[in-house]
Specification:
alpha/beta; Rossmann fold; 3 domains; six-stranded parallel sheet; 18 strands; elongated
Length: 557
């Protein structure tokens, strides 16, 4: 029988799955649940040692004999510190040692409780990775714990070998051994390039070809990649390709981009046919919360993430494989290895999303963003500020010749304007910035410099506050909290813009918008930077947006 501590069960199951079966066990009470579970499992060879300092070096010896990582498990407090010399040796000798330390719950650290000290990150720069496991009470805790253990074990042989530290908080009671088998656990694997001399990836390709419902999601990418036609033809028909405007030209074919609105509208009886069996991702961030929710609630059987750094990024909670290589090299590598069958799954997504019409809003923040997108010159840079603007733009088609930029790294509002101004200063083409009022006024110092050129054109959406907060489900604001949450204001940018040398234009209705847009988006150079300030009503904006989504949902039934 094994311990009932779920974080320990995850740890032990993953040690076995990753082939780490030699374990040095040191005495103690806090680590007793770990020791009991490891020593009673037939898959592990265990070695008992009392002195942690010596035990650490002993574990190094086990690892050196054969090259596979060995683990050492100790109790809390100074027992862990006694491993420091061995950990240092493992680090500088590139030995893949796994240090497992039992710990008190965080609430008792520094409270004069016995055998307690701050154990997470105690080895600092002498380990390749250090993780502190949660105690598991929810499904999210379990996913998090599983991910952390996978990350740590994968790091023992990533970009060179070395030690890792897994800290395991364990609450009392310690000695409940009521579980008769280890759980089925998700094992994350990593491929470090698919080169022609390494045939291990044949199994990967076979796994890919057994799935008919295959999806690729491309996150933010600040570049343009032109696939060769021979690769495009082979790749495009085999996958449902999803991306947003911030993915730019990094897809071999025409992607589905209006999936956010489609996912809102899709009826429950159609949901299952939309779920992929295999999900492949590359690139950075995704804006759509609906896509994240959809895949977390309907996980694929496998999720492969392709990235040059090989980091574990488990955005959808179902990651199984990390492929460490350039994503375009990966796609071109697999193109000729795909089977000849043309699956119907990509057409399911394409046909369904084609039924979602491009919106035709009344005058509102959404309509003016659409008007801007449709009027942009053929070749320019479009900078989308965070919060509402980047989401509204996704409702409309943007020509592939337009480069789209956005600060989605942390998705904050504070530097959208400054980043765009800096980009424009080094750019030889027109740069359009679509930005909301809170983002603009927060970052007004972006215009307080001498680097503003005539290629800069700012499209400011001013509805007197943070409109996006009006659309959050479940947020019922009192009169008191409303002004703080939405940052209600009556500020205009006119004075600041004119003082900084901008050509300024005010828009308050559709007629003025049409007149101004022709000037604002003209491709010919102008003598000064331009700022157009568009005023709308935030309550009306929120109502129009909700009506659009609800109408799509009704029409799909």
């Amino acid at each position: 029988m094994y311990t009932d501590k779920k974080n320990i069960l995850q740890l032990v199951a993953l040690l076995e799955a990753h082939g780490i079966t030699k374990v040095v066990l040191c005495p103690g009470s806090r680590n007793a649940p770990i020791v009991h579970t490891l020593s009673n499992h037939p898959g592990f060879t265990c070695y008992a040692m009392t002195d942690e300092r010596s035990a650490g070096y002993f574990a190094i010896g086990l690892t050196l004999n054969g090259g596979k990582p060995a683990a050492i498990c100790c109790t809390s407090g100074t027992a862990l510190l006694n491993l420091h010399p061995a950990v240092a040796e493992a680090f500088y000798q590139n030995v893949p040692l796994v240090v497992i330390s039992a710990d008190r719950p965080a609430a008792w650290i520094g409270q004069m409780d016995g055998q307690t000290l701050p154990q997470p990150d105690v080895f600092r720069t002498l380990v390749k990775k250090s993780v502190n496991l949660p105690e598991i009470h929810t499904e999210e805790d379990e996913w998090y714990c599983n991910r952390l253990v996978n990350e740590a074990l994968l790091e023992t042989h990533h970009h060179g070998k070395g030690p890792v530290h897994i800290n395991v908080p364990v609450s009392e009671p310690l000695f409940q051994f009521t579980v008769d088998k280890l759980p089925e656990v998700r094992v994350i694997t990593r491929y470090q390039g698919l080169n022609v001399y390494d045939r291990d990836y044949n199994g990967l390709v076979e796994r890919m070809n057994k799935y008919q419902k295959r999806m690729v999601i491309v996150g933010q990418m600040n570049l343009i990649y032109l696939f060769e036609k021979r690769h495009t033809k082979l790749l495009y028909r085999h996958f449902a390709w999803l991306t947003e405007h911030i993915g730019n030209q990094t897809i071999p074919g025409i992607p589905v981009k209006n999936f956010d609105a489609a996912l809102y509208a899709v009826p429950e009886d159609k949901m299952e046919q939309m779920v992929p069996e295999l999900l492949i991702t590359y690139g950075g961030h995704i804006v759509s919360k609906r896509l994240k929710k959809f895949l977390r609630q309907h996980p694929p059987k496998e999720h492969w993430h392709v990235s040059p750094d090989g980091e574990v990024v488990d955005l959808y909670g179902s990651l199984t494989t990390v492929i460490e290589m350039d994503p375009f090299e990966f796609l071109e590598k697999i193109a000729s290895l795909l089977d000849n069958r043309v699956p119907g799954y990509p057409r399911v997504w394409e046909n369904y999303c084609n039924t979602i019409p491009e919106p035709d809003f009344a005058y509102s923040e959404m309509s003016v963003v659409g008007a801007l997108v449709k009027a942009l010159p053929e070749s320019c840079a479009l900078h989308l500020a965070n919060s509402s603007v980047v989401r509204y733009a996704q409702l409309y088609s943007i020509p592939s010749t337009i480069e789209v930029c956005c600060n989605r790294g942390t998705s904050g509002i504070e530097g959208s304007l400054s980043t765009a101004v800096g980009y424009a200063a080094a750019s030889d083409k027109l740069n359009f910035i679509a930005i909301g009022d809170l983002s603009f006024f927060y970052d007004m110092n972006a215009l307080w410099n001498t680097n503003l050129g005539p290629n800069l054109r700012i499209f400011l959406l001013n509805n007197g506050g943070g409109e996006i907060f009006h659309t959050l489900p479940g947020l019922e604001m009192s009169g008191t909290s409303h002004k703080f949450i939405t940052a209600v204001h009556k500020t205009s940018a006119r004075g600041w813009a004119e003082e900084r040398g901008f050509l300024y234009q005010k828009v308050e209705d559709e007629v003025q918008l049409e007149e101004t847009m022709a000037m604002f988006t003209q491709p010919e150079p102008m003598t000064h930077p331009v700022l157009v300030e568009v005023f709308t009503n935030k309550n009306k904006d929120a109502r129009i947006l909700k009506d659009y989504y609800h109408k799509n949902k009704r029409n799909d039934k």
